[in-house]
Structures are given as structure tokens and as C-alpha cells.
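G., the chain you wanted modeled:
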Amino acid sequence: MRSLLQVVGVESPAGHPLAEIMPQLTAAGVQFRQAQLHLIAAQPGGGKTMLALWYAVNSKIPSLYFSADSDSRTMALRAGAITMNKAVTEVERMMDSEASVLLEDALAEGANHIRFSFDPSPSLQDIEEEIEAYVELYGCAPTAVFVDNLMNVATTSDNEWTAIRDSMSAFHYMAREYESAFIVLHHVSENEKMSTPNFPPPRKALMGKPAALPELALTVALDSSSNTYRVAVVKNRHAKADPTAEEFISLAVEPSHMTLYNTTADLHRARTMRQWQ
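Predicted structure as C-alpha cells:
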């Protein structure tokens, strides 16, 4: 039992913001924080993993990434595309040729701060044991823990919605216990009355209603036809939120390169620079 006076002046990472995601998101009060639980949700193919992996790679934050939804080769190709600024298809050709050494060098330099677990159905105990192994190896817990995604986590409950709530409760506890930012990816309903593919769905579309515990909940949508990545802040204990998702932030995206940009001008600038390399 402590008073709040004992909290002030104590060196603890709890609540401290992590590296910026995007300037537009920072301006909207969107930041991941240590010792807190966060949720990123979208329809299948809506760009959840793109945002999570892009941030994990570019933030340079020591991270543990549970990739239950995607296999190791797929994640290596995507991370390679991000670090090398190349299309995923080009990176795959490199991986299957003598040029694979270039991919190895790029991943060693640009993604070595991330450790992955590729268990397709990890239990809550498995996840905690992986975190403990990380602590044993590095002497501290990972700054960020990514769970991709919530539906793949195995629990003892036979009820799918109860399992979702149990998992979120456990992640909320682990975030506090290890002072890590937990970033959990999740699905939303594909019911046309609740969401449409190119626009972020409202908070009520979250499957299993897991929004009670996260400090921050984002719904996202990838619109490949216009190279637009839309982010709605449907819950935020630190700033403004819109549960209806009618207000959203539009970022630029290049899906083939697994890369996000703050503005369309930034995207065009990156393409121009790539042409002259």
C-alpha cells in the first residue's frame, strides 16, 4: 500500500510513452505506453499486422512479438521489406537466391531488437514463460510485447467470448507486472451493418467486446486502391476518442512494401527517392 506521493519522483517506466508512431497520431494523443494494454483491431486483411510489425521494426524498441497468425517465413519477408525499403515480392526472390545474405544483413541490422515466437496457438502460460525467458536472457522484460492475434491465444474456457476477456485480463496484469507495453491485435465483425472494409469500424464491432481494459483501442482499415490507411481512436484514456469511428486519421501506405507514411507527400517523396537509388 502506497500514497501517490511515493509515486512522484520514483524512477519507473510505467506510463512512459514509447517512440512516436506517426506525427498525425501523436497530435491526436495516440501513443503506446509502458505497463499499459493497447488494442489494434480490423477486419481480416485490414492492416493490423502491417501497423504492428512496421512499428516494431522502426521504433527500435526491444520487443517480443508473438506471431501466432503468420508463419516465420512470412514475417521475415515482411520485416525484410520494411528494413530494405523493397517490395515483399522482391525480398522473396532475394531469400530464394544467393542474395539471401543481403536480407540476413538487413534483418540483423534493422530488426535484431525483436524476438519472435511462432507458436500458432500459445496459451497464457506459454506467453508468460516466453517473457520470463526474455528476462533471463536480457536481464529485463521487453519494452513492448505484441500479440498477433487475440483469437489465436489458447485458454481453458470453452466459451469464445469468455476466453477473449480472460486473455485481455491476463495481458492487463502482465503489462503491469513486467512494465511492458502490451499491443494486442484483434478482429472485428464483418457484419455490413457494423463495418465496411475501407473504413475503421466502430468500437461496438470488436469481437467479444474486449475494450474494457485497454487504455488505448484503435480500429484500422487499409484502402489499397487509394494507398490510404485509416486509423480511428475508439478508446483513449489519455486524449479524445470517438467510439463510433466516424472521425479518423488518414495516413499514407504502400502495402507492397509494408510501409506507412504520415502524409501522401511523404509517400511520393519516398517513391521518388527509390527511383533514383
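The helical segments are 23-27, 48-59, 72-84, 88-95, 100-110, 124-138, 160-178, 264-275.

Shout if anything looks off.
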